[in-house]
Amino acid sequence: MDNLLQSAHIRLRAIEPSDIELLYSWENNMKIWAVSNTLTPFSKYLLKKYIESAHIDIYEAKQLRLIIEAKDQSSFMFHPVGAIDLFDFDPFHSRAGIGILIHNEEERNKGYASESIRLLTKYAFETLQLHQLYCNVAATNTASLQIFQKMGFKIVGIKEQWLKTQNGWMDELMLQMVNPLSLNSIN
């Protein structure tokens, strides 16, 4: 397959202006605010401005958001199921954070997250030539922890009582994957 951001079951694509309603519903879903560190709703105006700037190169914007689309096995058409991000892109240290959302519960546990992480990791290491990726996951988010660990991320630290919740404080784990293709290690 020629497209580095596509597999037999999913594809990762750039955000389009027509995604505004989709992003509006996802970003304003209070059930996921805890995992995205969101505290206030997003307006369509702000999302429109974000979409208008989504074309800016990752080296300038320091982030990249892609829509995850799954292929319907009966119609062979793609439909959006989530988003995956590179954020806090640091070209000097050659690293970025990675975050993922599979929005609807009925779309989870189908391998979309694992496949999306695999594709974006490959893109980050081969195309952007990053040295490492990291993610931050609440200690209670066992599904995300399992997926990232299955994809080769290792727990490298615990930020104790890092996240404030309605039920008290929660630890956050930091996971990291160093590019196995990196030749320039300083140790």
UniProtKB/TrEMBL annotation:
<feature type="domain" description="N-acetyltransferase">
    <location>
        <begin position="10"/>
        <end position="182"/>
    </location>
</feature>
<dbReference type="InterPro" id="IPR000182">
    <property type="entry name" value="GNAT_dom"/>
</dbReference>
<keyword id="KW-0808">Transferase</keyword>
<dbReference type="Pfam" id="PF13302">
    <property type="entry name" value="Acetyltransf_3"/>
</dbReference>
<dbReference type="InterPro" id="IPR016181">
    <property type="entry name" value="Acyl_CoA_acyltransferase"/>
</dbReference>
<dbReference type="GO" id="GO:0016747">
    <property type="term" value="F:acyltransferase activity, transferring groups other than amino-acyl groups"/>
</dbReference>
<protein>
    <submittedName>
        <fullName>Diamine N-acetyltransferase</fullName>
    </submittedName>
</protein>
